[in-house]
Design goal:
- The complex is a heterodimer of chains A (326) and B (319).
- Chain A is mostly helical and 326 residues long.
- Chain A is built from 14 helices and no strands.
- The two termini of chain A are 51 Å apart.
- Chain B folds into two domains: 142 residues, no CATH class; 131 residues, no CATH class.
- Helix content of chain B is 55%, strand content 6%.
- Classes of the chains: A mainly alpha (326), B mainly alpha (319).
Chain lengths: 326, 319
């Protein structure tokens, strides 16, 4: 076969592929003859690939190779498209995939929780004895803000906040908290250091606030406010910390893989954790904006909060334990 | 020591002589020796340079400096003119093509996008994002008050973290900025990115941005072959050029002319490619390039150009 013949043939294959690609793109609506034609896609794709290999091997001109390469690449793209996200996958993820992924990393969950919650009891114990510590951790402005929010008012909650500010707070919480979760995870690529930093940082802030309010005797206001949404929010931050620590572990202890490969593997595995954590934070933001500021009696708030904590922990510990598949 | 170019080209299914061609080739051989003054190192050297020049002109335009590499074990690597002049590692270092081997047994070439074009795309995206946010903020803030600002914050969150993800997965691998500049995000094996990979590379944008203006990302990009930032490394993705459609090559009409010497494969290619690109070259440039091949054609100027096109026609047309 001479060059000219080859050109004609490959041109024909490329034209057919171009037509097939438009057909395949809307394969669901195809009827009759077109439906039959689509079946030829793999065969034409292989022919293109063969043509490309031949053109490269015979050192045909740049334009010919480039055009065959482009055409083959386009069909390769179509051939190996990953299945798109469907509702079934989402529900499977929520019902079993996510909690399973969390449980698979239970050691890191413990580590991440220790980093986040460890400072809290320590500071709650230390700060009433060394009050100035709260100022060095939080800064004077923050302390004043905390006092205004929780210690100055009788019940620690605003009465009759308008719904508009609830929506505003919802937007703010999603923007802020999901951002924190994403940063905590992303920081893990610095050999886990970023995640450790964000977890400890959050733990220290939380501990300082608790300790300071304990000293003022106003901590119950804080507890009433945070207990409900804290169930989702704090756990989600811990989980995003786990995702970050997974990245760090991939780099620190790659095992028999190269570090780059181990990082890629770890990154793939941590995606469900990040997605789950983001979902939990959106739920937390709903509670934090619309439920937590409502002036219900403390008993109700504690009861609802306890129920939510039990639900979150139960969900993460048990969901998907018995279902098969995935 | 450059090879003499007077012997027959390596036997090859596409260009090997058919029964009818053989006498013609023999004739070409026979007359080759006397007509070229001393079948010499000097001539062939000049020749090698000329074909390399023409090829490099064609190759560099479309394919990066060293796009033309033969990876096939069937083709001895020595047939490409400039291959021996560069050490393997050097060629590897400056080659910007990314090769993907598919299950169909073919190697696809992807042209990776460099730092500059990606920064430009990013800038366009930032402009789009912020102008849309600005308009919406003004609109929502005025009409819905505090709740509107809450919605704006949601939008800010979305545009900061998820804007690229949505576009990369649902709009064929490109955010609007990337689309404008003709680049797309793909997996390392050339397949389209999915939700997981896209989410990863865009969440890690935070680290790449750190401490200011993508400093970490920039360091990562210049430190590896495919200009991948940390997000790309972790997600196993790559930003590549989307190749434009190219019209099918067409030779100018000409009477076939037998070359005075049998041409090697890469020389044949240079000649054909010259003829194919004739329309893209200025007349002066055509003549200049043809002048380099005077030892082959025996003529310079317009006649030389016509002679090369004739040889190309001979090489291409059906028997």
């Amino acid at each position: 076969m001479k060059y000219g013949e080859f050109l004609e043939q490959s041109e024909r294959a490329r034209k057919e592929m171009a037509h097939l690609l438009t057909l395949v793109a809307k394969s669901r609506q195809l009827r009759g003859e077109d439906r039959q034609r689509v079946v030829r896609f793999p065969a034409v794709f292989r022919r293109l690939c063969q043509g490309l290999a031949l053109a490269k091997h015979r050192d045909y001109s740049t334009r010919v190779v480039a055009e065959l390469n482009r055409s083959a690449l386009e069909s390769h793209h179509r051939m190996y498209r990953q299945r798109s996200l469907v509702w079934r996958q989402i529900s499977e993820f929520v019902m079993s995939g996510f909690p399973r992924a969390v449980r698979a990393e239970w050691k890191l969950v413990l580590l991440s929780s220790a980093l986040m919650f460890g400072p809290v009891p320590i500071l709650a114990f230390v700060i009433p004895r060394y009050p100035e510590l709260a100022y060095s951790i939080l800064g004077a402005d923050q302390v004043a803000l905390m006092e205004a929010m929780y210690a100055a008012r009788e019940n620690g909650v605003e009465v009759d906040r308008p719904v508009e500010s609830d929506v505003f707070m919802f937007g703010f919480y999603v923007f802020n908290n999901v951002g924190v979760a994403f940063r905590t995870m992303a920081g893990g690529i610095a050999y886990g250091l970023g995640s450790v930093f964000f977890l400890l940082f959050n733990g220290l802030i939380l501990g300082a606030v608790v300790g300071h309010l304990e000293r003022l005797g106003a901590a119950h206001n804080l507890y009433q406010f945070v207990i409900a949404h804290g169930s989702f929010e704090l756990t989600a931050i811990v989980i995003s910390g786990v995702a970050g620590l997974m990245l760090g572990r991939g780099l620190l202890a790659p095992g028999r893989n190269s570090r780059a490969r181990a990082l890629r593997a770890a990154a793939r595995q941590c995606v469900p954790l990040v997605c789950g954590a983001a979902l939990m934070l959106v739920i937390a933001a709903l509670f934090e904006a619309f439920w937590s500021p409502r002036p219900f009696p403390p008993e109700v708030k504690y009861a609802v909060g306890a129920a939510l904590w039990a639900m979150v922990i139960g969900y993460l510990a048990l969901a998907g334990r018995w279902s098969r598949g995935a | 020591m450059p090879k003499l170019r007077t012997e027959a080209p390596a036997a090859h299914p596409s260009r090997s002589s058919t029964a009818t061609e053989r006498p013609a080739r023999a004739a070409a051989h026979a007359c080759a020796r006397p007509t070229i003054p001393a079948p010499t190192t000097k001539t062939s050297q000049r020749f090698g340079v000329a074909t390399a020049g023409i090829l490099a002109g064609a190759g560099a335009a479309r394919y990066g400096a060293l796009g033309l590499r033969s990876r096939s074990p069937l083709v001895p690597s020595g047939v490409l003119p400039y291959r021996p002049r560069l050490s393997r590692t050097l060629a590897h270092m400056i080659d910007t093509l990314h090769h993907v081997s598919t299950p169909e047994g073919v190697e696809l070439d992807l042209r990776t996008a460099g730092v500059y074009v990606r920064a430009e795309a990013c800038l366009i995206d930032v402009l789009i994002r912020y102008s849309v946010l600005f308009v919406l903020a003004a609109l929502l803030g005025r009409t819905l008050g505090e709740a509107g600002i809450g919605l704006v914050l949601l939008l800010v969150f979305f545009s900061e973290w998820l804007y690229p993800v949505v576009f990369e997965v649902l709009a064929g691998g490109a955010t609007p900025g990337k689309r404008v500049l003709g680049i797309v995000v793909v997996n390392f094996d050339g397949t389209p990115v999915g939700w997981g990979a896209s989410l990863l590379r865009n969440l890690l944008r935070f680290v790449d941005f750190f401490p200011v203006a993508y400093l970490i990302g920039l360091i990562a990009m210049v430190a590896n072959r495919d200009a991948r930032r940390l997000g790309d490394l972790a997600a196993g993705t790559l930003v590549v050029y989307r190749d434009p459609h190219e019209r099918a090559p067409r030779l100018p009409k000409a009477e076939p002319v037998l070359p005075r010497v049998a041409l090697h494969q890469h020389e044949q290619r240079a000649v054909i490619e010259f003829a194919e690109r004739l329309d893209d070259l200025a007349r002066k440039r055509q003549e200049e390039l043809a002048g380099l091949l005077e030892p082959l054609t025996g003529e310079g100027g317009r006649a030389g150009v016509a002679r090369i096109v004739g040889i190309a026609t001979h090489l291409v047309e059906k028997p």
